[in-house]
């Protein structure tokens, strides 16, 4: 299978999206409406000094690419300074509901698809540059991205992949050598920041919003073309298009979205901006902006300052927001199906798949494998309630539990003491005594249930360690890596990137990266709170 790796600037690109869909005939870069078309052909705007800051070896291996030197032709491609003859760069036209309101045309305002790279394993991956300059969809903004948000996207997309969460990937982080001015907290303090470009990678970056904009404008033929393209390329098993196939396609999108959100809820990921333009049609986590990782288990928590008023996109809201977004997608697809009601069962299926997937993952995290004879759902629901009442660190709680379970099962006399140590390790100052009591009581019930498991104690513990990450991209760790990178020190970024590739491994030499959030980081801007400024 594996041909020897090639340098990106030698790679042959294909252009299925650009070939299959309607291109805007205008080359005008001016912000404008683009009715009737799926995308606008664009050219990236070159930057002063493109240099490689970070590179994903794992993804590159999947793509059959060799690591480029810090400067040179491949990095010029990754910055948008060089467009290969086989590429037809484009900015996609999409719309979306932002915070519940229809926002009209949005589109790739700073992202550009370069085309698809056929990988050695036969799959094709779209490579998209984020921050490569203005497009007709840039509205009032500059088409650029700052290092801080680009580094966060680069780190988190790869970390999510290694946690087993469906996600877009990131191949490279390239510094541009040009400043980008941003008012980070929208408080009248704009300052120049280092600019960067991330090369993102996914089978496709099509979003719910690509369908929505066409439906909103009554562009039914274009809507059908986009849907047929997506089905033909990514859901070929559904067969040739028909009203029935569109219904089944929507069902698949509902199921994939349910699986993605179930993962978020069991690793403690808060997307932060679940607008419909940030929802992938392939059920991938997409558009890493003001996301965050849950530290104290607080369902109402969001890191996104823009959402502090309503908490619409808080951790605990995500399952129902995804459902609402799917309803908006159903509305957009309705011109293609004879009877809109036919789309309704898929929404019920979303709820069923979400609950089943989340519960299966929670059972794995808890070492519960015995099937059918017991219904664990009430035990799982009461765990989530107790975690919310106790506000302990989710990641530390599960990881420590995994470590302690073998001893709890074999030496029940020491159980009380062990559980106290577990709760102390996971607790934050805000953790409430009453909540901790609830969690202690839950642990007692859990141990009784665990004793019904057929596997031996060591086997259960090992299974749990493989299901509960030790290392996640804690908000303050990302902030520290950014601070260092902005000062020219890439070591913290590289270390974090390496450690997060093996989140379930002990890696004792990196123990401090598994520590729960220190008190100084509690309210720190850029750590506990983030804006959409990027
Ligand atoms: P987001 O909130 O990042 O999902 O972005 C919402 C919309 O704003 C999308 O259409 C983006 O392409 C656009 N956008 C965000 N930042 C920029 C920027 N710096 N330049 C141009 N467009 C942007
Ligand atoms: Mg977006």
TrEMBL record:
Ligand binding (Mg(2+)): 278, 287
Enzyme Commission (EC) number: 2.7.7.-, 2.7.7.108
Keyword tRNA-binding: no
Reactions this protein catalyses: L-seryl-[protein] + UTP = O-(5'-uridylyl)-L-seryl-[protein] + diphosphate; L-seryl-[protein] + ATP = 3-O-(5'-adenylyl)-L-seryl-[protein] + diphosphate; L-histidyl-[protein] + UTP = N(tele)-(5'-uridylyl)-L-histidyl-[protein] + diphosphate; L-tyrosyl-[protein] + ATP = O-(5'-adenylyl)-L-tyrosyl-[protein] + diphosphate
Keywords: ATP-binding, Magnesium, Manganese, Metal-binding, Nucleotide-binding, Nucleotidyltransferase, Transferase
Region Disordered: start-end pairs: 507-534
Record-level Gene Ontology MF annotations: AMPylase activity; ATP binding; magnesium ion binding; manganese ion binding
UniProt biased composition (Basic and acidic residues): 507-525
Function: Nucleotidyltransferase involved in the post-translational modification of proteins. It can catalyze the addition of adenosine monophosphate (AMP) or uridine monophosphate (UMP) to a protein, resulting in modifications known as AMPylation and UMPylation.
Protein name: Protein nucleotidyltransferase YdiU
Gene field: ydiU
């Amino acid at each position: 299978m594996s041909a020897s790796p090639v340098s990106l600037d030698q790679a042959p690109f294909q252009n299925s999206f650009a070939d299959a869909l309607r291109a805007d005939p205008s080359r005008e870069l001016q912000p404008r409406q683009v009715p009737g078309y799926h995308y606008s052909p664009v050219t990236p705007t070159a930057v002063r000094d493109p240099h490689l800051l970070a590179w994903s070896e794992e993804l590159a291996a999947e793509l059959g690419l060799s690591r480029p030197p810090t400067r040179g032709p491949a990095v010029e491609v990754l910055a948008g300074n060089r467009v290969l003859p086989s590429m037809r760069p484009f900015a996609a036209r999409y719309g979306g509901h932002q915070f519940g309101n229809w926002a009209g045309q949005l589109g790739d305002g700073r992202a550009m698809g370069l085309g698809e790279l056929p990988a050695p394993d036969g799959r094709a991956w779209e490579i998209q540059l984020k921050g490569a300059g203005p497009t007709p969809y840039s509205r009032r903004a500059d088409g650029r991205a700052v290092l801080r948000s680009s580094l966060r996207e680069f780190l988190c997309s790869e970390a999510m992949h290694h946690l087993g969460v469906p996600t877009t990937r990131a191949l490279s982080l390239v510094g541009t050598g040009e400043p980008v001015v941003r008012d980070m907290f929208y408080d009248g303090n704009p300052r120049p920041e280092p600019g960067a470009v991330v090369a993102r990678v996914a089978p496709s970056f099509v979003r719910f919003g690509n369908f929505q904009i066409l439906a909103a404008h009554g562009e039914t033929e274009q809507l059908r073309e986009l849907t047929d393209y997506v089905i033909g390329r990514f859901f070929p098993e559904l067969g040739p298009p028909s009203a029935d196939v569109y219904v089944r396609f929507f069902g698949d999108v509902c199921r994939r979205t349910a699986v993605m959100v179930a993962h978020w809820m069991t690793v403690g990921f808060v997307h932060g901006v679940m607008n419909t333009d940030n929802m992938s049609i392939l059920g991938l986590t997409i558009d890493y902006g003001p996301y965050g990782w849950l530290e104290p288990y607080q369902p109402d928590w969001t890191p996104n300052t823009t959402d502090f008023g309503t908490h619409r996109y808080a951790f605990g809201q995500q399952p129902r927001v995804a459902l609402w977004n799917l309803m908006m997608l159903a509305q957009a697809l309705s011109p293609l199906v004879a009877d809109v009601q036919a789309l309704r069962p898929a929404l019920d299926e979303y709820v069923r798949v979400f609950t089943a997937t989340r519960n299966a993952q929670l059972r794995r995290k808890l070492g519960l494998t015995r099937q059918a004879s017991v219904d664990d759902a009430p035990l799982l629901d009461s765990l989530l309630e107790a975690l919310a009442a106790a506000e302990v660190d989710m990641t530390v709680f599960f990881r420590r539990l995994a470590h302690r379970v073998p001893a709890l099962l074999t030496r029940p006399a020491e159980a009380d003491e062990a559980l106290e140590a577990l709760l102390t390790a996971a607790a934050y100052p805000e953790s409430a005594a009453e909540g901790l009591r609830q969690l202690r009581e839950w642990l007692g019930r859990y141990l009784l249930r665990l004793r019904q498991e057929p596997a031996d104690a060591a086997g259960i513990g090992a299974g749990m360690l493989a299901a509960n990450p030790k290392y996640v991209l804690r908000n303050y760790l990302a902030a520290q890596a950014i601070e260092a990178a902005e000062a020219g020190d890439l070591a913290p970024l590289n270390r974090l990137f390496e450690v997060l590739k093996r989140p379930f491994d002990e890696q004792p030499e990196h123990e401090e990266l598994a520590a729960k959030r220190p008190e100084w980081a509690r309210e720190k801007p850029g750590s506990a709170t983030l804006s959409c400024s990027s």
